[in-house]
Structure prediction request, 574 residues.
Amino acid sequence: MSDTEQSRPARRFTIGGALLTLLTILAAVIWFIPIYWAIVTSLRADQATVTEFTLWPSEPTLAGYIFGITNSKLPIWYLNSTITSVVITFVAVFTAASTGYAISQLRFPGRRLLWWIILASFMIPVPALIVNHFVIVANTNMLNTYQGIILPMLLTPVTVIVYKGFFDGLPKEYREAAVMDGASEYQLFYRVFLPMNWGVTTAMAIITFIGAWNSFLWPFLAVQSEEMMTVTVGITAVQDAFGVAYGRVLSGAVMASLPVALAYLLFQRRVTQAIALSAGIKG
Amino acid sequence: MAFRRQELTAALVFVAPFLLVYGWMFIWPTIQMVRLSFTNAPLIGAGDWVGFANYTKMWGDRVFHNAIWNTGYFVLLTVIPGTAIALLIALMVARLRGWLQSMVLAFFFLPFILPVTVVYVIWDWLTNVQFGILQAVIEPIMGRSINVWRTLPWFMPGVAIITIWWTNGFSILLFLAGLRNIPRDLYEAAALDGATNWQMFTRITWPLIWPITVLCLTIQLILQLKIFDQVYLFAQGGRTQTTMVMVQYIYESAFVKNQGGYAAAAAVMLFVFVAVISVLQFQLLRARGQR
Prediction:
């Protein structure tokens, strides 16, 4: 059970081992049932959602999806989610990278203080700040705008910590040699240090994107008009409008999760790496 | 210590965007939160200084007690059980190889990347009183179908189970990374000495995986203290007072009752709770690890 050998050929076959493997697969399948059932239900015709309980719809249909796209603001919400998530990803990762780089590689007064403040911010529960975020955003007339949704979500101390850790791990000679060659500070960062860790950057970008797409509480507070909602907030609005039509609601849910599910399935290794990095362990 | 001029300017350019966002969206609101908590201001607009009135009022509010109790109950139901389940799953997945391992891991991890509203919609359907397939499990045990989200004793455990299902992928990945980092020769040496699987687990795996366990428990605790989304969504349309959690208390005070000052005081309380509990837990777990 506690065996973790890696590259070795399979261990000797035992009945106990086979049963355990079977049990693991069974557990994984059970874990997956809710998602499977949601997808299957979304493919059933309206009536069939409450009369048919088969593993696969007798007459699969995309009617629920088409209804969602044509009868709700889903396309606009998709656009809103895409714009806000992409901007958050770019800005948050870029500022975190340059800050992590400065703290790790450059000497400037207040460096230690800045580092301690960033570490301490782990302690502050961001949901505690919703009241004052709302006040700030409302007072600057940013409610129901992209900026209003984006700004409070740019707080990513963890990403700074990840980058600082990465840059700390590089030998000091890199910088010294490049400085001797007459490279400017900016060339150094963009040409030498950032390209060295595209892997880390991709990983952090993917996980930031998933986080931004999925966030609920703040976009829910910052937006009241239906035109500015993100998908994540919007699909509960669909639920109210669609009533008990579960097929339609679940079609919306499937569409809302599609980008993040794809991001995960395409970049599985990067997502794993990002999670290990964020937790501060070697993946 | 002398600073190079060029280096200083560059450093300023590099940290400026972060400092701007950080100051504007983090330090400033934190200071404002504390100040606001001593006033009777509405959500938007000025108010009078009232000293500790908000705090004393909150201390006597039954709904606030509910919020603390429910948050604590939720933490109890998720943090340790969730971490234990994650370790168990990680141990099971670590045995597998190749594509089978990737596939099984993907099944366990997939819920983690779903938006909370999707999680809500899925489980709301699964638990639907008339048509939910989970009623097929509930009915034989309870003798009747149950409206989980309108039955008080079922509410928190229900949300806890869903939260474990949803967020466990994170801990599973951390445990798997930890298991991979355990040197293989330790097990080989133990096997040569004739150790049983159970002995290998208690003497090698468990002590070496303990730091990851502490990490998972800490991350989970801080995360689950901030529970809001799931509770809010599942309680929609019902009476929220009995299932209130702390962040929801802040939300309702500010955005439903329009009491900005009072909500800020509740936010300060949450802040204090999170800080105290995370420091305590850290000390406690570290001490236990050093035994």
